[in-house]
From TrEMBL:
Protein's recorded name: Helix-turn-helix transcriptional regulator
PROSITE patterns: HTH_CROC1
Segments forming domain HTH cro/C1-type: 32-83
Matches recorded under Gene3D superfamilies: 3.30.450.180, lambda repressor-like DNA-binding domains
Length: 295
């Protein structure tokens, strides 16, 4: 076990030094000496405390969970082979084939990071949120504050736990068609990942909790094609904001990239810009104070 902790710490430090902050969607300031990510930046991207990252790199934090290792692998934009190496370094078995992958390829992360003026969230095949930018958090809430099992769109829509409670007042003009799309996607995922225990638990719990979910599950026969839709968010800072929601499917990675946009010059675009400007001002203040914001 001591050897595994040493291997994990070595890999963590080496891969943190390798990743450009620009590729991670972070602002690079003049006079920066570190070529890779700072420790606090990795903590921010992975939703961890700086102290915990320090203890991991020093080999003092024992037995990181699979969820933590997965979050670090995504934050460091590791390849699948490197991700598996990091799992083994932590004394864990890498994710098995035949289960829903939460791995986000580096190219997808770089693409999403460059859409800084647009709220972007990346979801796995079971609609678990696995990557999001700061504007997504500003619009819809910080998913890193949720328990790992609750960071799922199906739980937010059909459940009664933390994910549902944290979801801002939101009206989807597609109505039941939106719900049907989520359920149809989950049915498709179950057919392709029959050995995934967490996916099966999500479906069984959702069917037990929600009559609407059970009704859709019993009637939907095929995955619904994703299309543009309109959503209205009642935001505590900018008020009601109507946005176009688009789902971009990443086939080879089995991911869904969700974006929210508004027409240029519209009042909704102005409200989104206000959120972004407020967010940037907050980041400037916290950076000068050496404190950390979670992504």
């Amino acid at each position: 076990m001591a050897s595994s902790r040493h291997d994990f710490a070595t890999l963590l430090r080496a891969w943190r030094d390798r990743l450009s902050p620009a590729d991670a969607g972070l602002t690079v300031t003049a006079g920066r000496r570190a070529p890779g990510l700072r420790r606090e930046e990795l903590a921010q991207l992975a939703g961890l405390s700086v102290d915990y990252v320090l203890r991991l790199e020093q080999g003092r934090a024992r037995n990181p969970s699979a969820q933590i290792v997965g979050a670090i692998a995504r934050a460091l934009q590791l390849s699948v082979a490197e991700r598996d190496q990091l799992y083994r370094g932590a004394g864990l078995l890498p994710p098995r084939d035949g289960t829903v992958s939460t791995h986000v390829p580096a190219g997808i992360q770089r693409l999403a990071a460059r859409l800084g003026s647009v709220p972007v969230g990346v979801f796995a095949a079971d609609w678990s949120l696995v990557w999001w930018n700061t504007l997504w958090s500003a619009l819809l809430g910080d998913a890193s504050q949720l328990p790992p099992s609750e960071g799922n769109l199906a739980r937010a829509v059909f459940g009664d736990g933390a994910a549902h409670a944290a979801m801002p007042p939101l009206r989807h003009e597609a109505g039941q068609a939106f719900e049907a799309m989520i359920v149809a996607d989950l049915k498709d995922a179950v057919s392709r990942y029959p050995q995934d225990v967490q996916l099966d638990r999500l479906v069984q719990e959702s069917r037990a909790l929600s009559d609407a979910f059970a009704r859709h599950w019993d009637t939907e026969t095929a995955a619904t094609l994703h299309s543009s839709s309109r959503k209205t968010v009642q935001h505590p800072r900018v008020g009601e904001i109507r946005l176009d929601s688009d789902v971009l499917v990443v086939p080879n990675a089995d991911l869904r990239m969700v974006t929210y946009t508004a027409a240029t010059g519209s009042s909704d675009a102005e409200k989104l810009d206000l959120l972004r400007i407020t967010l940037e001002a907050t980041e400037d203040v916290t950076a000068s104070g050496k404190s950390v914001r979670k992504t």
